[in-house]
Amino acid sequence: MPTMEVDGKKITWEGRKMILQACLDQGVTLPHYCYHQGLSIVASCRICLVEVETPNPKDPSQLMKIPKLVPACQTPAADGMKVHSKSPKAISNQKAVMEFLLINHPLDCPVCDQAGECYLQDYSYQYGRAESRFEEDKAKKPKKDIGPHVLLYSDRCIMCTRCVRFTREISGTGELAVFGRGFREEIDVFQGRALDNPLSGNVVDICPVGALLDKDFLFTQRVWFLQQTPSISPFTSGGENIFIEHTQGRVYRIKPRFNKDINQWWISDDVRYGWKFIHQNRLRTPLSRRPGAAVEPTWDQAIGRLEQIFKKAVTETGPGSIALVFSPFDATEEMFLAAKWIRGLDPQAWLTLNPPPIVGQDQVFKNPSTGAVNYVLRAEKAPNRRGAEKVLAYFGGHTCTLTELGTKIKAGQMAAALVIADPFAQHDAWLGELMSGLENLAVLSTRPDGLVERAAVSLPVCTWAEKDGVFENHAGRIQPFQKAIAPLEGTRSAGEVFWDLLSETGVYSAATVRATMAQAGLSEYAEITMPRRGKQVELMQFAEL
């Protein structure tokens, strides 16, 4: 394995890598602005210039100093090389670059959303001068609304061109470009166009300063108060890895979490902005409806009535008269417990799946130059259809489609059904129509929808951000997610509900259920471990996520 020395520290790497990337992979930080591992290398910011000693081609045992500073982001790492980023020459360059970048930069850190995760702010402290020598007036540039999600503060821009390269190389839409020259140079959209591609929010993530800001997050929270919890997107079947950023029980934004095989450094705007339902229009208390009245029972009373309804239906109507409708938005552990409970009441109970919503076709984003696939936006908008199908296959027996279940209800063959509702409204009208002829309907839902209004018993359950579990994406990859915030007061996870119905001992735990599933023959759930929980948002980490 090749080895080089960086400021006295030994660095190893595999394959062909640039000096900067080899250092970052080993936790050695070199200053950089324009470099991003997922984009082409332009070496324009010049703050990563280093002194290099490289083996002499004629005598490899001797080192030969390259006479000028070289960009670490664009210089291949070589075995035996020595790199100096703290030499007087390198430090002088870093100070000069910082002084140049700050000449026209406004002193608005106290009101800038990027404060706390800003490369310019951090490098100014580490490499900048204590005071400015620039006495002339700063060049002022306007704030621009460049798309439905993004604002451009032009006077903060350092012309790293990450955003321009993203729209050309990743989204392939090319809305952004560099206009003008010299101090008049600036980033802008082409006239008559907006930054509105399905991946537009990623330019905010990769901007190293406060030039590109998210309208949705603008002036809502300081980043040093936020906690990061690793999770999986519940909005598509792609299984995108994300961070939920939250504080004091409230989610403030979703950020991408690097996964080389699934979403790399990117997420779609659907994933980024789809979380608002967590704090909106939530069902907060159990409901029990009897002829002429609706009451709010305690949780124990509601669960007792639900169990009573289904036991009575089996006793009076016979086997095969009750049904369970899974949601492809629920964790696999919860579906397993639900199926186990209802099959315990009636081995011939019908199991079915609420079909996942499909919106258009898959959108594939490729690099126009290389043809490499950067990101796939899945048309299937549910995270766990494969997990639901696996549970259905495991329990077998009486399974049917939702349409077939509706036919049985209309024919008077069903006495009771339990529906785990989707957190969104795609199937409300259809499900309501299918269940309209059923008197004994029970619903687990996050929101007071049409199904809840029809149900004899309704139980308020958590969103994915308020519980642990696993999702299985379209390709069969099982990935865990963690509880980010405490459940809304009055709600429980669906897993807890069925844990109580099964009269299991101890506190409900998704890990315990996975162990049970593995013992029952679903061995793929045996070795799943949760990713490391995030701490407070750390400075300098966002370009490498």
Describe the structure.
This protein is 24% helix and 20% strand. A hairpin with a 2-residue loop joins strand 13 and strand 14 (250-256). The chain is built from 14 helices and 25 strands. The chain has 545 residues and is of the alpha+beta class. Helix 8 packs parallel to helix 13 (494-501). The two termini are 25 Å apart. The strands form seven sheets. Strands 16-15-23-22-21-17-18 form a seven-stranded mixed beta sheet. Strands 1, 2, 3, 4, 5 and 6 form a six-stranded mixed beta sheet that branches. The longest helix is centred in the middle third of the chain and has 19 residues, at 299-317. Among the domains are: 3-97, Ubiquitin-like (UB roll) (Roll); 287-525, Rossmann fold, CATH 3.40.50.
Strand content: 15-25%
What is the first-to-last residue Cα distance?
Answer: 25 Å
Number of helical segments with 4 or more residues: 14
Spatial strand arrangement across the major sheet: 16-15-23-22-21-17-18
- pLDDT under 50 segments (min length 5)? 535-545
Q: What is the helix fraction of residues, given as a range? A: 10-25%
Shape: elongated
CATH architectural name of the domain at 287-525? 3-Layer(aba) Sandwich
Q: Write down how many β-strands occur, each being a DSSP E stretch of 2 or more residues.
A: 25
What's the main sheet like? 7 strands, mixed
Average pLDDT number: 89
Radius of gyration: 28 Å
Q: And the CATH topology of the domain at 287-525?
A: Rossmann fold
Structural class: alpha+beta
The CATH class name of the domain at 287-525 reads Alpha Beta
